[in-house]
Design brief:
The chain is of the alpha+beta class. The chain has six helices and eleven strands. The strands form four sheets. A four-stranded antiparallel β-sheet has the order 4-5-1-8, with helices on both faces. Helix 2 (86-111) packs across helix 5. The two termini are 40 Å apart.
Length: 260
């Protein structure tokens, strides 16, 4: 028996403002659109470090987070990973961060306009199908980015950069002087925006611009233009299916969304 109901028992998700979660399918669609430009496209991404624990709760919710001890009490002012409403509330924060990153990437793309003919033709083709100014901005983006709570996945057209005066842009990368590419600029700028809001990327989990990137357990391979389950998840799902076929009880449910 218990005197008080658990924290999650007080949460009514039907009263929370709903959000549309990102999916692997959505990211794959965005990458596919960029590939129609017929130029180099690179995938990148990163995880937000300790995203939940760096996010505070509203004062109206603090009463639900009390901790009672034999010698007193305390309250947890930070979001816990197991909170039922955490993905929804932090997902709204993620939506804002995604908007801020996209805004900065558009500013940089204006400062370093492409000079590749096929990309310029692709932009003009996209503009002809845009209905209003808002669509024109989105339809001419040279990147696609989405965030699933604390997991960032993105792809960018990766042409070599020139400034607005037509001068080549060179940078030092891994100890070598190389031409700056748009995907690398986008990757570094996105992390910079994240840090501006007091967050940071998880050390060792960043995926620098490449041709193959894992997002939400699914590998996106740009060379093959395919989405496949990540190796470890393939093995886990295979073991669960074998258990089910042998008539053995499966300890954990298998739930593969058609939107994954």
């Amino acid at each position: 028996s218990y005197l008080f109901r658990a924290y999650n028992a007080h949460i009514r998700l039907d009263r929370e403002a709903s959000i549309e979660y990102a999916s692997v399918r959505l990211l794959g669609r965005g990458t596919s659109i960029l590939l129609t430009a017929g130029v180099l496209v690179e995938a990148w991404g990163f995880d937000v470090d300790a995203y939940f624990r760096k996010s505070g709760k509203q004062r109206a919710h603090l009463w639900m987070s009390g901790l009672l001890y034999w010698d007193g009490y305390a309250s947890d002012r930070r979001v816990q990973f197991g909170q039922r409403e955490a993905p929804v509330r932090l997902g709204r924060q993620s939506t804002f961060i995604r908007w801020a990153i996209a805004r900065e990437l558009r500013r940089l793309d204006a400062a370093y306009p492409t000079r590749i003919g096929s990309i310029l033709e692709w932009i003009l083709m996209r503009l002809r199908h845009a209905d209003d100014e808002t669509e024109k901005e989105r339809w001419t983006d040279l990147f696609f980015i989405c965030i699933f709570v604390d997991d960032v996945g993105a792809s960018s057209i990766s042409d070599e950069l020139y400034d607005d005066q037509g001068r080549e842009v060179w940078v030092v990368q891994e100890g070598r002087t190389v031409r700056q590419r748009r995907a690398w600029l986008h990757y570094e700028a996105a992390i910079g925006v994240l840090k501006h809001f007091g967050h940071s990327d998880s050390e060792g989990k960043g995926i620098t611009p490449c041709q193959e990137r894992v997002f939400l357990g699914v590998t996106e391979c740009l060379r093959r233009q395919a989405l496949v389950l990540e190796k470890r998840k393939r093995s886990d799902y295979c073991d669960l299916c074998k258990q089910a076929l042998r008539g053995r009880p499966v300890q954990q449910g298998i739930a593969i969304s058609r939107d994954a």
